[in-house]
Write the structure tokens for this entry.
Amino acid sequence: MNDAQSIEQEIVAAGGTIQKDDRIRHNIVQLEQNMRTFKQEHGLPDPECPLTHTFAPGIYARTIFIPKGTLVVGKIHKHAHLNMLVEGAVVVATEDGSVVYQAPRLMTSKAGTKRVLYTYTNTRWTTFHVTEKTDPEEIEEDIIAKSYAELDAIQDAEVQRFLGELNRGVQP
């Protein structure tokens, strides 16, 4: 095991990033693609899941309403962030496993999280992100990885930067 792999394992163990599982990643991406293909082939609309954007100095809150009985595959988050299940009951599956949540529930998502979520009831879910920006599209560019390959490249670069700072005697 090299230094980068060792540091990456320590970060995962400390809860800073999700444990990488290529099989589960593949299954989540495949499910998302299958859902998209099925909807296109059968002319089915996406579920109505309105978003609300709220801003305060240094923070962005994104709230989504998801109707009862909806299966959603989320996006890949580059950074750890807070989440609040404001209303509803859901089952959530990630690389870390699956769990049932009932509102109200405050939790921390690890960097690299991509969720599969099924709503047992009407659900309202809020994510909180540290940013000074106020344009949701610009914020999404900062907080969302377009693919697991992009996420892995970002995380590898962060580990290499950290190792470089250690080698130079810089406190990270």
Remarks:
- Residues 22-42 form the longest helix (21 residues).
- The two ends are 22 Å apart (CA to CA).
- The chain has a mean pLDDT of 88.
- The longest strand covers residues 59-66.
